[in-house]
Amino acid sequence: MSPHYLEIFVIGLALTLLMADAFFPAREKRVIAWIGASGLAIVFGLLFVVDPAALPPDTIAPYYSADPHALFFKGLALIATIFVLLLGCDFMPVLRRGINGADNDRKGGVAESFILPLFACAGMMWMASATDLIFLFLSLELVTISFYVLVASMRRQVGSLEAGVKYLLLGALSTGMLVYGITWVFGATGMTKMSQLAVAVPGMTDNIAALTFGSMLVLAALAFKVGLFPFHSWIPDVYQGAPTPVTAFLAVASKAAAVLVLARFLDPFLNNPEIAAKLIPVLGVISGATLLFGNLGALGQYNFKRLMAYSSIAHAGFLLLGILGRDFTLVSFYLGAYVCMTLAAFFAISIVRRSVGRDDLSAFNGLARRNPALAFTLVVSAASLAGVPLTAGFIGKFGVLMGAVNAGYWPLVAVAVPAAAVGFYYYFKIVRHMFWEKPDDLEPLPVGRLSTTALALLTAGTLVLGFYPRLLERAIQDAPIVPIPAATANTADTP
C-alpha cells in the first residue's frame, strides 16, 4: 500500500465524523472521540505495512517522502492525537462548561473538539512527508487553522478567547514571513523541492545574500511554531488559556512536526559554507537565549500550565541545539521521549483541574496522600523533564549535549548545562507541593479507568526509554534528514 493513503484515511475519517456528528445524540459526543481514536490506531498499524516504493512516481513522489524520519514522525503525530482524544473524553465536563456556560440543558458543542484534531493530525503527517515548500506551506496552514479554532473553543471563558486572538494574530504574522521567505528562496534558486535544494544550495556561490535572507525569514516563521526565542511570546498565554487537551496537543505534536520541518529546511543551507557562516551564529544565539529564557522564566510560575509553557520553550532550545549538532537521530529520540513525559503531565493536570476546579500548583497540594499512583506518575514525568538519570529525558538531554560537544559548540554547552540545572528547581517544586504541602481536602482524588490506562502507558514509556533507548533509536537510525532520489541528484540544475 502506498504511504500517501495514510493521510487520506485520516481526512476521510475526520469528514465522516464531521457529517455523522449531526446524528449523534447530544449526550453521546464521547463516542466520536472513541471512533476517532480507534480509526487513528488502525492508521498507526498501517504504518508498519506501507511500501514507500509504491508512491506514484509522477504525481505524488516529487512532493511526498516516506523515508524513516517521515514515518517516525507520522507515528508520533498519530500517537499524540490518540492520547489527546482520550484526554478530551476525561476533560469533557470542563469543555462543556467552557463552551455552553451555565446552560446546563445544552449538552452539544464539544464534537468539534474531537474532530478538528483529526484534521490537524493529517496536516502534521503531510508536514512530515512534505518535500516541496509549497506543499509544506499548505500542510502547515491546515494545522494552524485547526488550532485557531481549538485554542478559542471554550468561548464562555475569557482566557480561551484571549489565547485564540493572540495565537491568530501572531500565527498570521508567522505565515506571512514563511511565504515571503519561500519567495526569496525560489527567486534565488528557481526551486521549491527540498531534494533539489539539498543538491544545489551547498555548492552555490551566487545569490548568497538573497538565499540567506530567505532562509532567515523561514527560520523566523518556523521558530514561532517551535517556540524559539524571540518568537515565543504567545506560548505562556496560549497554553494557559487554551483547553488542556489542546495545550497538550500544541506542546507535543505541533512542536514535533515543526522541528522536523525546521531540520529539513536548514540542512541544505548549513551545508553551504558561506550561508552557514552567517546562519550558525544566529542559530546559536537563538538556542542559548531560548534555553535561558525558558528555564529562568519558569522559576516564578505558580500556574502549572504556564510552568509547562516555559518548560516547552526550554526544551525547544535543546531541540535547536540538537539540530545544530546535526545528529537528527538524537533529536528524534528527544522528541519521542518528550511526547511521553509531557502528555503524562497534561493528563495529571486535566484530572486535577476537573476535580479541584483550578490548575495552579496549590491544587496539587498533598496529592501523594489523595492519590499516590497519580503522584508517582507526575514524579516520573517531572524527573524526566528535568533530566534525572534512568529516565527518557536524561537520555535525550545527554545525547543532545554530547552532539553539541562533538560539533565543537562549547559556548552553547556552557549555557545549556546550567540552564538544565535550573530546571531541577521548578520541576521539583511540583514534587514539593504533592508530598510536603498540606492538602485542602483529604478525600481521595478519583481517576477513571481511561486516564489510569493512559498514564500507565505513558509512564512505562518514559521509564523503558530511559533504560533501553535503542528501542526508539532503531526506528530512524542512519536515515538522511533530506532524502535525495538518484534522479534528482543527477538532474538538478544549479541556477
Explain this structure.
It contains 21 helices and no strands. With 495 residues, the protein is an all-alpha fold. The protein has a domain at 276-479.
Secondary-structure map:
Layout: H1 5-20, H2 30-46, H3 68-90, H4 92-100, H5 112-129, H6 133-151, H7 158-189, H8 194-200, H9 208-226, H10 235-241, H11 244-270, H12 273-298, H13 304-325, H14 328-356, H15 367-370, H16 372-386, H17 392-406, H18 410-435, H19 449-467, H20 470-473, H21 486-491
Helix pairs in contact: 1-2, 1-5, 2-3, 3-5, 3-11, 3-14, 5-6, 5-11, 6-7, 6-11, 7-9, 7-10, 8-11, 9-11, 9-12, 10-13, 11-13, 11-14, 12-13, 12-18, 13-14, 13-17, 13-18, 14-16, 14-17, 14-19, 16-18, 16-19, 17-19
Mean pLDDT, all residues: 84
| Strand element count | 0
Strand pairing plus helix content: what structural class? mainly alpha
In angstroms, what separates the terminal alpha carbons? 37 Å
As a whole number of angstroms, the C-alpha radius of gyration is 22 Å
Low-confidence stretches: 486-495
The major β-sheet equals: none
Strand content: under 5%
Question: Count of helical segments?
Answer: 21
Query: SSE order in H/E notation?
Result: HHHHHHHHHHHHHHHHHHHHH
Oligomer: single chain
Give the % helix: over 70%
What is the 3D form? Answer: globular
